[in-house]
């Protein structure tokens, strides 16, 4: 069998190609050997790289690849078997290392990817932190601007300064071309251009408040971008430049309604001002979020500052009004005090001047009554006494009413016999009732205390007034059977100068003051008084209740009361009693002397306090001293009389004789050691009681 030679003859080598392959393998080998050197340097310098052994393995793979290419340089020519063995060994090692590296990368790549993911995450976080830091810096910058603007805005409480400062500071901070403020008119139907940044005196610009753009801004508290061509934004002159962006924000206005002290102002949410802010024209600048927030905050601060300014203005107006009212009230108070002083001075003078002639009339009439008189003369004298007593009562009523109205009248609280008071009132009323042929009785409850604590004089006045009215208007029985009163007219009975019985007024002697004074006395005694009547012609019933105290001991102050009933009194004898009367008024001095002489006294009358001090001796037992003598301090006279007699038994009893009914006079008299106060006018019976008290007790048991 003939063998066929199938091996083709070797392809002739291309010298040029071989040369290029040879050069390429050389540089590949050079590059492969340089890369491990770089990896070794990286591993040496990197102390935290987690895959150093992988780099070593990868470096070995590259070195083997480089060695393979380097050995391959000797295969381009005839080479020995040793070269072929070395070449084969290098390729086998390269294959093993490359497979091991490939298998190792399968496990390493996910870790490397996760590292990459974390790296990207960290980069994103870093970017986010950068953005947040930028936002924080922006907010800090905004806050700084807000604080600066707030300080400038709220450094004054003048609303015009506040608004102008706001526009200027916003324009400077935000670099605005124009900033304007539209304020609502009084009608609330239009907005008026009140303040601008660039124009000093804007006038004549108004827009309807119902414009859609205005409603859009007023319906939100945020800053709103509006069209540069809207009516509220047309503040710049027309030109070829593109207008900048415009935003508008509302400014709440505080509406004060009926502002009063202790009341909060009413905030109307329908009243807003409109602030318009414009960026420079022909500019690519846009509004940023932090700038809009700055505008919103400033608008709120302006609202707060305006509210404070409004409250301050209203407070200033209220203060001015209050000051005017205080000035008027102070003037009225001074005028009232002057009027009260003038009235009191007038009353004091009139009190003294009226009581002096009344003292003469009553004293002389009572003296005349005790003389031998014909029935006709006695009737005349009794009429004079009755009329004089009515006039004296009227004088007392007028003075008491004046003091009641100005609050100067105070109750004279003391312990007194309640039973004796009612019996005395009965004894005083009986003669008047007997003239009208009326029968009057007194019924006291068994549990009524005999003694009480209160103002005996005022209580007696109320009782006498009420019972006197009953007797005055009663025809047949004790119960008032007069003309009666309409129920709706009963409140008027307690008014001044109102007669209780208009139909019988012509037959009565009342002044219309009695019930008015009684009501005030009863009120002072923490009680009340009322009139009950079923109508005209059916009579009336008077009912009053007062609050009295009860003494601590049942026998307290029993010796302080003198029962004045006519049945148990014996007229005392004062013959030889030496008395001094000091009175500057000749009539009063003569009348008082006449009363004392009639009672048997030895009387020395003087006209001044100094004369009284000079003439009084230890033989004089009683000194009647008028405390209203002009040019004389009667209280000083009393002190000097006491000083004149060192021994107390030698001192005369000093009694004040006055027409002044106020408590101060009585307190001053008692303060200087006087034994009591005798109030003019004085009748014979009254003077007799005064002397009896003085001789029995050394002082007046009660004011006479």
Automatic annotation (TrEMBL):
Xref: SMART domains: GAF, HATPase_c, HisKA, REC
Residue span, Response regulatory domain: 578-695
Topology versus the membrane: Multi-pass membrane protein
Presence of keyword Heme: no
Keyword terms: ATP-binding, Copper, Disulfide bond, Endoplasmic reticulum, Ethylene signaling pathway, Kinase, Membrane, Metal-binding, Nucleotide-binding, Phosphoprotein, Receptor, Transferase, Transmembrane, Transmembrane helix, Two-component regulatory system
UniProt-listed Pfam families: ETR1_N, GAF, HATPase_c, HisKA, Response_reg
Key word Nucleotide-binding present: yes
GO aspect biological process, one term: negative regulation of ethylene-activated signaling pathway
Enzyme class: transferase
PROSITE patterns according to UniProt: HIS_KIN, RESPONSE_REGULATORY
Sequence positions that bind ADP: 469-472, 480, 496, 511, 515
Binding-site positions, Cu cation: 65, 69
Covalent cross-link Glycyl lysine isopeptide (Lys-Gly) (interchain with G-Cter in ubiquitin) as placed by the record, residue numbers: 680
EC number per UniProt: 2.7.13.3
Record's cofactor remark: Binds 1 copper ion per dimer.
Main location: endoplasmic reticulum
Listed GO CC annotations: endoplasmic reticulum membrane
Cofactor: Cu cation
Similarity remark: Belongs to the ethylene receptor family.
Annotated protein name in UniProt: histidine kinase
Species in which this protein is naturally found: Sesamum latifolium
